[in-house]
Amino acid sequence: MLGAVLLIMFLFFLSQPILNNLQKEHKWLKAGLLNQMYWFHMFFGLVYWAYAQVNRSDSVVYYRSYLHYKSWFEAFEPGTLFIEWINYPFAKWLGFNYDMMMFFSTWVGFWGFVYFYCFMKENLRFNPKFEGWDAITIFMFLPNMHFWTASLGKGAYIFAGLALLTYGLSWPGKRIIHMVLGGFICYMIRPHILFAVLIGMGVGFILGREKVPVYQKYLAALAGIAMSIFVYEDLLTFLGYDPNNVLQSFEEESALNSQRLQSAGSAVDMSSYPLPFKLFTFWFRPLFVDSPNALGLVVSMENALYIYMFSKIFKKSFLEYIRLAPAMVKMSAVVFISISISMTFVMSNLGIIIRQKSQIMYFMLFVIVAFMDWEKRNRIKKRAEIFNRIVEEERRNREEAELVGG
What does the pLDDT read at residue 401? Predict the structure, then answer.
């Protein structure tokens, strides 16, 4: 464990130049807050490490995998093997033990929070509040989000990849490295998530309200569609579907996955649920009444927050906002909805649902706070219009009084 402690300290100091460069680019960024986030996330790395000592964890299999390969690139394939490919040089060449590899992966997950935080903040004009507290800061410290992104496994890396990709798409011309690295990680771990982001990007750029030349919008959309076509067959093969008979293989695979998950414990039979109920289960369960354990109770508190936040968009004005929303909001909405729908057809175990939804909840939370931001701008605009109207009426009244007096 001493090696892990030294590594945590080394990674903290290694992070400072990167955080300082981000602070130079974003003057509103508080490096102190991100450092607090670092230690908070490392704490959850410790929590997960302790959890893995007494519970079955795939992290042990990922770590020991380097013993089965003769060369590094034997594991260079999309999916589970990619995590083993990442693990190989650290465990084989640098001599990282299991504890060190766990906390190195925790550090990777930390950057997911950093870049999601930057993405949200730079795309909002105001700081939406939750009972007087900065809503985005609260989102960045949700325990469940940290727990499932703090270990050696897919969770930390796909979360970081999504954050890098989303942050890069927010300003494509200046953040090519972020987009390429994030897109590469997403493709290698979960191609279907990259597929959803590409589709969302195309929709967002076409329908977004930004003052961008039309030809640039369609070029971006065509690029997204072209990349989607490029990964389509690999995506279906990765998911276990027959590219020549997608519907039948999807139904067979969904039924098989449902049976597997039902036998894993904490099962929820969603096969007969209508789609709205499936989505509710995926987004908001477990609730306090069906929490399977102590971890479920913590998650239930987060789910109560999600329900509260979702309640903010049940307004007629939300439909108007979506119509007028910028590209990044529309992209986030498409990514969230499309991935949610696809996952509801194969998820029926609360434990897996809790883990999987942590990858995409920030997309919908961003849509919600962006809507709250838009509402606040409209309120300020209306107050300004009322104030200007009152000032104008007073000016006219003075002029009329001066004319009468004259």
Answer: 73
pLDDT of residue 191: 80
Answer whether 136's CB lies under 8 Å from 128's CB.
yes
- 176 Cβ contact list (under 8 Å, min separation 6): 168
Determine the pLDDT at residue 220.
62
Burial per residue of 22-59, b for 16 or more beta-carbon CB atoms within 10 angstroms, e otherwise: beeeeeebeeeebeebbebbbebbbebbebbeeeebeb
Name the β-bridge partners of 130.
133
Report d(CA 100, CA 1) in Å as an integer: 8
| Of 146, 184, 164, the residue nearest 41 (C-alpha) | 146
Show the DSSP H helices in 73-213 as ranges. 80-92, 98-122, 135-140, 143-147, 154-169, 176-189, 191-207
Q: Where are the domains of the chain?
A: 1-12+30-189
**Model confidence at 222: pLDDT above 80:** no
Of 107, 116, 219, 225, the closest CA to residue 165 belongs to 116
User: H-type helices in 240-360, by residue range?
Assistant: 246-262, 275-284, 294-311, 316-324, 327-344, 350-357
Q: CB atoms < 10 A from the CB of 110, how many? A: 27
Bridge partner list, 349? 267
E strand or H helix at 129, and its extent?
strand 129-130
- CA pair distance 295, 350, nearest whole angstrom: 11
List of residues 6+ apart from 375 with CB closer than 8 A? 317, 321
Report the percent of the chain where pLDDT is more than 70.
79
User: How many Å apart are CA 240 and CA 346, to the nearest integer?
Assistant: 12
Cis check: omega of the bond before 274, within 30 degrees of 0: no
Sequence-distant (≥ 6) Cβ neighbours of residue 11 within 8 angstroms: 103, 104, 107
Task: Give residues with Cβ within 8 angstroms of 112, minimum separation 6.
Answer: 149, 156, 159, 160, 161, 162, 163, 164
Q: Does residue 130 sit in helix, strand or coil?
A: strand
Q: How many CA atoms lie within 13 A of 306 on its CB side?
A: 26
Lowest mean pLDDT among 89-103, 135-149, 373-387: 373-387
Distance (Å, whole) CA 293 – CA 291: 6
Measuring CA to CA, which residue among 257, 213, 220 is closest to residue 239?
A: 257
